[in-house]
């Protein structure tokens, strides 16, 4: 930062910084050709309706298998894709591919399922974002109500007005909007009132500490009640133990997602989960 570089300031060569920078450049270089080379795949993690114990839908999660780098976690490349704006074409591919998957599922099964897609704030800033979402849904013949767009609080750090306007248009078209990672980082309760939401996804950070101890359940109980009072569906993320599921059931939380049910799996496996012995009944 320019204002920090006063007279008395000197910069020490930082080796960690240097390697991190090179690492980013390296990733970005390979990321550039990844879409064209078909190196991305979507995995699907089931979401389960607690009351019925049935799979109600899936969250689509991107996977990158680079011939040069091997499997790279989205935690390592989404940020770089955002900074380089590569997230715009990658994100559009994710949206269309996830809709295509759901369209195929709906064609085979009589039930209606939902698909949740993570959307970057950079995508939301594109002028044609609403049209792309409408087109992706129409192309795959899925009802807008079956497509949920997951956003994070980072929408508040960018051109807020422009983004909220788009979210309102999408909501009016019937699409669902979820606030992801609620409770992680700097989420503020006032966000809940300012966004046209359908769903609240409670971050794993609130699920991890859940034990039989009543005190550990205070936050989750309050969040579920708050979400419901606001007319939102509440989904718990990162559920790993059956004891957590039991507690969530008592709080009235609507849905769960986590390793307890299933890890994110490739498309073929996701279809098998729906066609399994319980016909999608998993708990
Ligand atoms: P997220 O949207 O909050 O997705 C949930 C993450 O938690 C996923 O990590 C999932 O594999 C992981 N997870 C689910 N259940 C459990 C559990 O029980 N225990 C633990 N330890 N982890 C669990 P993943 O797939 O590595 O994705 C990480 C993040 O990368 C996502 O967090 C999302 O922010 C971002 N991301 C993934 N795919 C996309 C994408 O297509 N577009 C965008 N813009 N971001 C994406
Ligand atoms: Mg998500
Ligand atoms: Mg999340
Ligand atoms: Mg997230």
TrEMBL record:
Source domain of life is Bacteria
Transmembrane helix as a keyword?
yes
Keyword Coiled coil on entry: yes
Name the UniProt key words of this record, in alphabetical order. Coiled coil, Membrane, Transmembrane, Transmembrane helix
Q: Which residues form the EAL domain?
A: 24-278
> What is the official name of this protein in its record?
EAL domain-containing protein
- Say which species the protein is native to: Paenibacillus spiritus
Species lineage, top-down? Answer: Bacteria, Bacillati, Bacillota, Bacilli, Bacillales
| Stretch of the intact protein here | 756 to 1038 of 1038
């Amino acid at each position: 930062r320019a204002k920090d570089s006063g007279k008395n300031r000197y910069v020490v060569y930082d080796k960690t910084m240097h390697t991190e920078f090179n690492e980013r450049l390296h990733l970005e270089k390979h990321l550039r050709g990844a879409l064209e080379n078909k190196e991305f795949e979507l995995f699907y993690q089931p979401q389960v309706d607690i009351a019925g114990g049935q799979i109600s839908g899936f969250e689509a999660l991107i996977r990158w298998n680079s011939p040069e780098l091997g499997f790279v976690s989205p935690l390592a490349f989404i940020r770089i894709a955002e900074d380089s704006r590569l997230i715009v074409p990658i994100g559009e591919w994710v949206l269309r591919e996830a809709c295509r998957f759901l369209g195929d599922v709906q064609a085979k099964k009589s039930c209606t399922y939902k698909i949740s897609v993570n959307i970057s704030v950079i995508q939301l800033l594109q002028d044609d974002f609403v049209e792309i979402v409408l087109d992706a849904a129409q192309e795959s013949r899925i009802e807008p109500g079956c497509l949920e767009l997951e956003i994070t609080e980072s929408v508040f750090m960018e051109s807020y007005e422009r983004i909220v306007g788009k979210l309102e248009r999408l909501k009016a078209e019937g699409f669902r909007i979820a606030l992801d990672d609620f409770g992680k980082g700097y989420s503020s309760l006032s966000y809940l009132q300012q966004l046209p939401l359908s769903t609240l996804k409670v971050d794993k950070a609130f699920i991890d500490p859940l034990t039989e101890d009543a005190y550990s359940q205070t936050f989750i109980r309050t969040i579920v009640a708050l979400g419901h009072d606001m007319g939102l569906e509440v989904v718990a993320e990162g559920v790993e133990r059956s004891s957590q599921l039991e507690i969530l059931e008592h709080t009235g939380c609507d849905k769960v997602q986590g390793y307890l049910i299933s890890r994110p799996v490739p498309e073929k496996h996701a279809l098998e989960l729906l066609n399994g012995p319980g016909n999608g009944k998993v708990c």
